[in-house]
Automatic annotation (TrEMBL):
Site (Transition state stabilizer): 64
Family to which this protein belongs: Belongs to the peroxidase family. Classical plant (class III) peroxidase subfamily. Belongs to the peroxidase family. Ascorbate peroxidase subfamily.
Name of this chain's protein: Peroxidase
Domain called Plant heme peroxidase family profile: residue spans: 27-322
């Protein structure tokens, strides 16, 4: 009897040990590359800085890449894989095609990083660092970015179509699409503050400016000038998501929402008489609360289903599997 329970204790102990090792391996950490690639951060930042100096919008595009990577089966660099005749990646998925950009900048960063520490740093981690640097360079908050993700050897166009919420979403759909990846309603409202930078295409806001009533009339007039009502005409014409300071990361996005100048249907859903109005009001009145909730949300988003340990690989070229 005594022998039985002590061997049982050993089995339980072993199981706990394996669980513990498993979960500790799955942890990302801020010092993951501190020995294997000590110059990683300045190397990434200088490429991001020069890309943004050339075109301020690029900071927005790089931030969005990280979102579209993380929401589709986790932050695993899958969005960076090119299609080939025998492989369909995520670049032509509905939310990405003709829309996501910044792949050339990611290539530049990756080759600068490969030059100093070959086959060490994943493309998934490069996206996380790049998103952080972009926000900071455009005037937003800065945070310690957790690292240790590895790169997927596959991608899923179907998951990209289904997991990234479309701009036609109503509030409940936005809440559930974020909940589906472990992010709260507050995370959703704070992360949507990313729309304080960057641009959207007419096709994504046409229905809002021509058909919706919860929208400021002079804002409508201004946006209609460069976005014709007929489907197919001017679809790719751009307008800033934040009409005030589209290349500065601040809380003007929430000021726009309070004055019914959200550009996308999904933007104005956050302040339309529903449960998130009070969060928008808080961020409108209090930029430092927005900044800290945004950082919390970015870190949580970066934790979505990373590949760690011996899963995945460290790609040499972000566009293809090794
Ligand atoms: C809440 C749900 C969200 C929806 C429905 C949404 C939708 C969109 C759409 C439709 C565009 C314009 C794309 C185009 O017209 O080509 C856009 C742009 C953008 N989104 Fe979101 N988004 C959401 C959340 C987020 C999040 C969480 C982030 C980042 C953490 C983000 C970052 C951006 C940025 C920075 C841009 C501008 C990109 C550029 O100028 O290249 N979005 N989003
Ligand atoms: C994803 O959406 C695109 C564009 O709407 C469509 O062409 C493609 O067939 C979809 N892919 C899958 C796997 O559903
Ligand atoms: C506005 O709504 C009407 C009626 O539902 C529809 O026929 C029209 O195509 C919509 N216009 C736009 C630009 O979405």
């Amino acid at each position: 009897m005594a022998a039985f329970s002590s061997s049982k204790a050993i089995v339980v102990g072993l199981a706990l040990f394996v669980l513990f090792m498993g979960s500790s391996r799955a942890q990302l950490s801020i010092d993951f590359y501190s020995e294997s690639c000590p110059w990683l951060f300045p190397t990434v930042e200088s490429v991001v800085q020069s890309a943004i100096s050339k075109e301020a919008r690029m900071g927005a595009s790089l931030l969005r890449l990280f979102f579209h990577d993380c929401f589709v089966n986790g932050c695993d660099g899958s969005i960076l894989l090119d299609d080939t005749p025998s492989f369909t990646g995520e670049k032509r998925a509905a939310p990405n095609f003709n829309s996501v950009r910044g792949f050339d900048v990611v290539d530049k960063i990756k080759s600068a990083v490969e030059n100093i520490c070959p086959s060490v740093v994943s493309c998934a981690d490069i996206l996380a660092i790049t998103a952080r640097d972009s926000v900071y360079i455009l005037g937003g908050p800065v945070w310690d970015v957790k690292l240790g993700r590895r790169d997927a050897r596959t991608a899923s166009q179907a998951a990209a179509n289904n997991s990234i919420p479309p701009p036609t979403s109503n509030l409940n759909a936005l809440i559930s699409s974020f909940n589906a990846v472990g992010l709260s309603t507050k995370d959703m409202v704070a992360l949507s503050g990313s729309h304080t930078i960057g641009q959207a295409r007419c096709t994504n806001f046409r229905a809002r400016i021509y058909n919706e009533t919860n929208i400021d009339t002079s804002f409508v007039q201004m946006r209609k000038r460069n976005c014709p009502s007929a489907t197919g005409s001017g679809d790719n014409n751009l307008a800033p998501l934040d009409l005030q300071t589209p290349t500065t990361f601040d809380n003007n996005y929430y000021k726009n929402l309070v004055s019914r100048r959200g550009l996308l249907h999904s933007d104005q859903q956050l302040f339309n008489g529903g449960s998130t109005d009070s969060i928008v009001t808080t961020y409108n009145n209090n930029p430092s609360t927005f900044n800290s909730d945004f950082v919390t949300g970015m870190i949580k988003m970066g934790d979505i289903k990373p590949l760690t340990g011996s899963n995945g690989e460290i790609r040499k070229n972000c566009r293809r599997v090794n």
